């Protein structure tokens, strides 16, 4: 119970280069000094960061003042001497994996990465990704909308492009809002999830003296997967250019199959522009996509590690309801920030990804099993083989990376684990303390009920796949 007031301080180690590279892609570094110190709610200047529970805050503050009259309640000074005078909750917010207090981030990110030039270049990159996604989807709508024979192809691409667009939108919007609103890195805004300060707070709990790249396997494999997809894209582009599909007059020679669409010059232009945009999306978008989900995975690991540190804090401060409650509030706010993004992104991605896969599988069924034009269909399957593998590969990639990174449909499970662990710590010495803390923790995070689009869309897509006949099945005729 006795609070040992000695503070062991440490400096943050340098972040691994692979992390710096992948987060530069996401536009995390904008040349601002990283400030990972975040005062607890009572110590921070009132109203500065949109608190949710401000009603009890005043009452709690008064109580706190009586309890710890010797502790100054507000201090924003981050110099080393002031650390000793911080309240225990504030100090526990600065714990790293070894339980040392880390507030010095001068060595974490080198200047040549964290500067304004790099920041604006990454913003440019991320916006280019968004623009290309919108552009390609727009092209598809313009060309395929209302054409019943192209519905399979259209929906198939729409599901893939839509997912990429979702992530592009999150990255771009968060970057732009950080520039426009300039909210401090410790405020509770959803776009601050990609803020260097938020990231530094998460990484602190993953590191001790040394810093090994977290989730390095995931990053390596997903970047490799992205490179493979880009290679596929190049191969199918070459195949497409060699087949001479860009010249409309040649098309009449191989129209023995009734499924081939008559090609026009306008259509050839469409295919060309679309293929070009597709290349740019693959080359820029897929690495950013992989980096984004690696980042989500690292954030999830960081939050899990911090929840374990909270358990240690609660164990050390058994009986002090107010301190423990404040610590739980702090971590809950950090968890809900990431959750707020994922709760919108994940159902969309899973539903759309499942739709895309089902549509593509039904395309496979049509190509391989149609007996009407036996000879013709065989050629079709052979001609489309590379595109077929490529589409499977990219569709699996956009669906599985998020699922792996989040570890399910959302990150609620880490909060659940925390409440279980908390109730296991319970003992009869402080019956009332535990009851109040458990009650408070449960109240903080009521069960979330999100509409499950997944099942609905999967059924719809099966229906779509089975009931649309006479589709234009040859994807090679319209580029990759
Ligand atoms: Zn404090
Ligand atoms: Zn209550």
TrEMBL record:
The alphabetical list of record keywords is: Membrane, Transmembrane, Transmembrane helix
Is Transmembrane helix a UniProt keyword of this protein? yes
Question: What species was this sequence derived from?
Answer: Patiria miniata
Which parts of the chain span the membrane according to its record?
121-142, 154-177, 218-241, 267-292, 341-365, 385-406
What protein am I looking at?
Uncharacterized protein
Q: Which domain of life is it from?
A: Eukaryota
